[in-house]
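I have been asked to look over a protein record a colleague put together. What it holds is a sequence and that sequence's fold in token form. Please read both lines and tell me whether the tokens look consistent with the sequence. I do not need a full report, just your reasoning and any doubts. This is what I was given:
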Amino acid sequence: MWGQIKQGKALLTIGGVYRDLPRNSILTNAIYYPMTAKENFQGWANSNYYLFVRLTSPADTAGLLEAFAKQLTALGNVPGLGNMGEVTANDFRLDPLSELHYVSDASYDTVPKTSRQTLWILLAIALIIVLMAGINFTNFSTALTPLRVKGLNIRKVLGADTGSLRRSLLFEAVSLAVLAYLLALVWVYLFSLTPLTSLLSPKVSLSANMSLVLLTGLVSVAAGFLAGAYPSRYAVSFPAAVVLKGSFGLSPRGRNLRNLLISIQFVSSIALIIAALFMYLQNRYMEHAPLGYDKDEVIVAGTNNTTVYKSKEAFVNELKSYADISGVTFGQYLLSSADQYMGWSRNFKGNDIHYYCLPVDPSFLDVLGIKLDEGRDFRPDDERTRHGAYIFNEIARKEYGLQVGDRIDSAEVVGFMPDIKYTSFRKAVTPMAFYVWGTQNWGTYNSIAYVKVRAGADMRAAMQYVRKTLKTFSNGFPVNVSFYDEVLDNLYRNEQRIGSLITLFSVLAVFISIVGVFGLVFFESEYRRKEIGIRKVMGSTTGQILALFNRLYLYIVGICFLVAAPIAWYLVGQWLHNFAYRTPMSWWVFALALVLIAAVTALTVTVQNWRAANMNPIDSIKEN
């Protein structure tokens, strides 16, 4: 289909339609058109673009960078960058397209990121869950051996060879694993229909991820084979005396094996609970720690076009006519919405200084409640000067030796403010400045409106009024209005998703561990029913018998905690290093994880053994 659309004053011809890009692509579904040949032709200092280079071979990378470095060296004095001096290939790098999702040390890179560390953590947890399920299967199979061994030996007497019996048991284990895999596919499909998919960035679709579906199918077969290998081997290799006694389940060898396997589950569960608690505390810290400015009762609106800003005075007066709106201001960027903003490099007293520059209206600091450490606030008169005015943060003052009254490219430094958290807690505070444009500017405008609502007012009603007013002034352009708290939610959405997933996995791991404990206690109480009856006859109380069973499992929990705590401490510490500002690793988190696991384990053991401990001892002795 051919047609034409308008882009500014230019009339563009529609040359084609492309297939929709996936939701998790770095490229968005938008209208793409070619840049003009003179686009920023001399704007060497402009960092508004990505450079994509198609190479015939990865080996060409070094040669390309060498050629690029030679050309820049030959240019000498580059407009906006000054004298380049000698440029080498080491001053540049090319990242493969497949790696862009993981590159985190590039400036002005807005490609959505995920750390490899996070991916490996989630993969490791998934494998731990599979391992724990396999351990439960192995544990139950070995615990059931005394009940099945007689039947297996009867089949031997009737002519079955040991190899065929082992293969049949192994096939049974693999069949159960494959059945569980098929049920899991059903659960994944049902999961894709629920709001829980918000925990994941990509679309949850089996048909769109067939390679992953096939891979997990192979994992299920492997898990079934590994989990069934030990029980199938030993279930058919007992001597006749053990078969007649039927006591393998309580032999030291069998008991120690099951205790070792359940210990692995406890170590995993305790470590996951500790990790989930620290992730919750870190997310809570980032969401509630003071930022240095007033974000409460603030509504932000993206104007998206110059129409609103050109009618700024009328727009502000209309908003202030609403009784519960106390202030309105504008900024070029949404504060605390990103980790990088416009970076400037300027000459100050013979040295280059680097800082983030956030253009704002003169009333910005007053509306957001940002106090000054020294100097004065912006004034409307600053907009009428030729070069505008700066207010820097404290770290810029200390690092560059700035003072009130200094000038940077003829723009006056009028004040200094505390080191507010203008980026996320992932990044340390670096030199930055709020800047009021003078009459000499780049034709830019402050497109974000900040609307301050009086404390105690109806925020929903105020938002509806702001949205209605913005639509009136926007001439049909889409409007985007939200509470400031939603900005922080979006900023830490990835951490919140990971924390929620870790919590979900932790609950699942604890559930699997408790199922394992429940099964082992059931079998042990059945095998020790006669012992329980004798103890009751000899005068033991129900509480003493319950304490007897609990003592072993609480001892195992204690040993597992001593193993899990250092592992969790190291792994959580590595994860927290992703944040410049982080919650302390408090001791009580480890203690709480121990108490939770111990309490759930004791409750499980007590409930399962309550019936056995209260049975008539005569019946228990007779049945054995």
About this structure: The mean pLDDT is 81.
